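Quick one, probably user error.
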């Protein structure tokens, strides 16, 4: 078990060759955001650019793409077609901002081109009103997915054989929990995290994935992060104070960060940072270490100027470059 250090982080930062262009630093395909979580799409896309990715494409519903474009000129958008109602009676149940499963066909070329794919930040699975009538599982609190769930399933099927890094966050994890624990509840075939994947659960999300009480997870964070990495064949980033990173063999503990990060949207920033490092050719395990350490350091630097009370997730975007400079300067 290793605690991440400034020196180690400095040693795994990717190079920035002079003779380079935007594609040198990789393409992120970020599938994120929904009608109530437009901010998650913004934060996860911009944070990937802030750590040095060359090109970020946000694929989402048209309204999310419009919102993000209105806030920043830096992100390329790929609006995906909304789901259509099959019958007149469905119309009141279907939020037209849900993405059609057929959108995966439109994404096919982008999925193949991308250096890394991030899926799930704010990509709600609970957009349709019929979900509100369903009961949550009493153990894991998970409600049967709906809304974007058909799109999710089509997407996960499409990328099963993908060997590029894929980062699964937030609702992508909740959807996977549903598939893992209710395999016969739908007529769908088994599906798993992809090779070279990274998952970024907070303790409740890991509790849903493992079907283990969240208090048990918190009492044995290293054990459950490592167990999940082995069982699910993925790299696990178990978030919270002293984030644990494990590939099932190695374990890293993050010393950076403070309560400034305990604010909505900071997890979306982390997902983008890890994706941005993967895009630059860093191994998924090192990308997870870089993202987690620098995310925490950005929170500390932001809190030095704004207080632990006053930092916003969007403030982190300004402090990521300062955190990188701090690490670079430590190397001289
Ligand atoms: N501006 C935006 O658009 C934002 C969008 N977000 C998106 O909102 C969606 C829902 O995410 P949420 O995380 O709110 O919903 P969840 O339902 O996954 O998590 C909330 C539950 O998990 C528990 N929990 C969270 N962190 C915990 C921890 N460290 N220890 C123990 N329990 C913990 C909470 O107490 C709560 O019961 C995600 O798709 C996410 O990406 C959020 O990131 C917030 C900001
Ligand atoms: N008290 C804390 N100390 C250190 N890091 C924290 C603390 N609280 C939250 N974080 C970090 O902030 C992020 C929160 O992510 P998450 O729970 O997914 O939030 P959201 O879904 O709102 O984006 C994680 O990276 C977590 O490790």
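Nope, works fine. Designed sequence:
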């Amino acid at each position: 078990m290793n605690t991440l250090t400034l020196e180690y982080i400095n040693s795994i930062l990717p190079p920035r060759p002079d003779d380079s262009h935007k594609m040198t630093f990789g393409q992120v395909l970020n599938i994120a955001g929904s009608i109530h979580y437009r901010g998650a799409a913004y934060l996860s896309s911009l944070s990937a650019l802030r750590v040095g990715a060359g090109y970020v494409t946000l694929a989402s519903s048209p309204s999310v793409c419009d919102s993000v474009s209105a806030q920043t000129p830096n992100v390329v958008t790929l609006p995906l077609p909304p789901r259509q109602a099959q019958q007149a009676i469905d119309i009141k149940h279907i939020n037209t901002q849900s993405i059609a499963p057929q959108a995966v066909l439109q994404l096919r070329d982008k999925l193949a081109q991308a250096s890394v794919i991030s899926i799930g930040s704010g990509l709600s699975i609970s957009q349709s009103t019929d979900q509100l009538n369903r009961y949550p599982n009493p153990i894991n609190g998970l409600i049967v997915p709906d809304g974007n769930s058909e799109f999710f399933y089509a997407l996960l099927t499409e990328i099963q054989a993908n060997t590029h890094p894929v980062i699964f966050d937030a609702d992508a994890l909740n959807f996977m929990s549903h598939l893992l624990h209710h395999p016969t509840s739908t007529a769908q075939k088994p599906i798993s995290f992809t090779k070279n994947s990274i998952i970024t659960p907070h303790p409740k999300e890991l509790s849903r994935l493992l079907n283990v009480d969240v208090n048990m997870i918190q009492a044995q964070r290293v054990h459950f992060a490592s167990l999940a990495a082995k069982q699910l064949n993925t790299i696990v980033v178990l978030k919270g104070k002293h984030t644990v990173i494990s590939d099932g063999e190695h374990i890293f503990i993050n010393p950076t960060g403070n309560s400034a990060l305990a604010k909505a949207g900071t997890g979306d920033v982390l997902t983008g940072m890890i994706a941005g490092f993967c895009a630059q050719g860093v191994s998924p395990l090192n990308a997870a270490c870089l993202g987690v350490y620098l995310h925490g350091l950005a929170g500390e630097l932001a809190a030095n100027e704004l207080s632990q009370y006053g930092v916003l997730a969007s403030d982190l975007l300004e402090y990521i470059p300062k955190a990188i400079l701090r690490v670079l300067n430590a190397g001289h």
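The longest helix spans residues 284-310.
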